Amino acid sequence: MKISVDRLFHPDVKAIELDQPLRLSGDLALRYPDGVHVSARITPIAHGVHMQGTLSGTERETCVRCLEPYSRPTEIDVEETFSEDVGREQDFYADVAPLVDRSIDLSDLVSQLLEVDEPLAAICSESCLGICPLCGTNRNVATCSCEAHTVDARLAGLARLRDEFEANDKNGR
């Protein structure tokens, strides 16, 4: 979705108020099935425009601990400057976005902001117990009888060394 900002270059227009729901496509449409909402104010600057506002929506995620789906509310501050002095070929390296044909590509901006806001490891809650690595039981739903302190075979040598140090500390050595 492109937003024309041509009227901001006339002296009688001070700002454009944007209050727009936006449907997404591709992977983002699956993660944000209800779309997102952009609320922003676009103001003119020398050779461009400045957009300030918020982007909000609800993202469907899968918890990396318990593998259960959950919804995560998202609210992102939008602070973006667009300049006619920046060309499309300079977009990747410039501090400001290009203002091409005096219009803003809102879909592209929203996609970039949502991708940057994506957590590295989405967790449904800080108190999530996750799944048992031995039997696969979701420990938020049920308890399992698996031994909690199993040592990874790759770290067994370090565990023995730790046990020796603890035994020496108890014996006063």
Fraction of residues in helix: 10-25%
Can you tell me the residue ranges where pLDDT is under 50 for at least 5 consecutive residues? none
Number of strands: 7
Largest sheet: 5 strands, mixed
Q: What would your notes on this structure say?
A:
The protein has a domain at 2-117. It is built from three helices and seven strands, in the order ββαβββββαα. The chain has helices spanning 27-31, 106-117, 156-170; strands at 2-4, 16-22, 36-45, 48-62, 69-83, 97-98, 103-105. The chain has a five-stranded mixed sheet, covered by helices on one side. A two-stranded antiparallel sheet has the order 1-7. The N and C termini lie far apart (72 Å). The model has no long low-confidence stretch (mean pLDDT 86).
Which structural traits does this protein have?
alpha+beta, single chain, elongated, 5-stranded mixed sheet, 173 residues
In short:
The protein has 173 residues and is α+β, with helices and mostly antiparallel strands. The chain contains three helices and seven strands, in the order ββαβββββαα. The chain has a domain at 2-117.
